[in-house]
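Input record (one chain):
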Amino acid sequence: MALWILLAIMLVCGEQFAEAAKVVPVSMRRTKARSATHKRGGLSPRRLIPLTNAVSMTLYEIDITIGTPAQPITLDIDTGSSDIWMYSNPVYLDCKTCLGGSFDPDASSTSTMIKQDGFSIVYGDSTGASGDYFSDIFGLGGTAIENVTVAVATNLSFWPVIAPSIMGIGLDVNEAITDDGSTPYPGLLSHMVDQGLINTRTYSLWLDDLDAATGTILFGGYDTNRYIGNLTILEIQPDPLSGIYWAFLVPWTSLTLTTSSGPTLLTSDTFNAPALLDSGTSFTLLPSDVYNELAIYLGAYPNETVQQILVPCDIGEGSLDFGFGGSSAPIVSVPFAELAPLAFDLKTGDPVFLEDGTQACSFGIGEAEGVIALGDSFLRSAYVVYDLDSKLIGLAQSDFDCTSSNVVEIQTGLEPFGLTAG
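The corresponding structure, as predicted from the sequence alone:
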């Protein structure tokens, strides 16, 4: 009997997912007109690395419930962080930019305080949240996962972010509780394994293209019909300074700009840099020299009125081809069109219009200040499997034109998934 949980849109590419045991369909949707995303720093040595994406952006959200009776909340799915945290009622009522609802532990008969004042995150731009850790029943599409640790934010520090609370599904070692030397707590996937819902701490992510309103996340499995070619295995990279495996860092080894005139390599033959696979960052943040070259080539320009970098919506034909792991690396090609999402005002959420009355487009690439982040503008073109147990990443080109589904259960003790898949 297959033991995996499917967290997915209910209809994808016009097809329903194949029936299987332990299937829980949950909608994951793309939303627009959000403000900045912020990442906490890595673990070497307790430094804060700003990864601020202060541009018109999108987030991928999922509806969950928490507590008894169930309190509905919308969360932003974030592979770049590791805590599930929610606004408290007082914070939410006092916050003009907070969305998605709040959690009241006092109204839940199954809520247990784990660590009062134990939750604190400070981001690279001085924004932050703090509060208490609780455990409670976490509901996904009607399936109850018991004893899940969540944080409830009772204080926000300089919080202009127009967004819901966060569903961090990264490595446990990057939880905020570890900042004071405390031991990481078992994350959501650990509880799903312990309760027999999935076999391994794995999940796959398919965001689909920029025109799609929804995407899919499969806990404990992956879908061979959602990507093109083979699913190539990459080892997660440790932090270069500390040697700690704190995030989904992969070996990025090349970037090629491809047009009808042919390919142009934008990186050196010896280029190799760890890059963070981060669904919580809307755009892709690249080194300064690469960013500047692409900004000039693609016609990016600053708009002082909305304080954004814009590009022509008709950005032209071509792709950015990202290589990983060396000369025989998997290539993920990002079409130029995926780098030009519609622009929205950061303060109001209203569309940004040009003088001719047409809506403007944002530049889907930013300049990295520290960690290189492959955010949603990259991830939409990739199919990614995250294996927290084996510290492996499965990577392939996304299939935007899928017409069917073939979900594969990831089992314990077998060879790494996807070596011959496709």
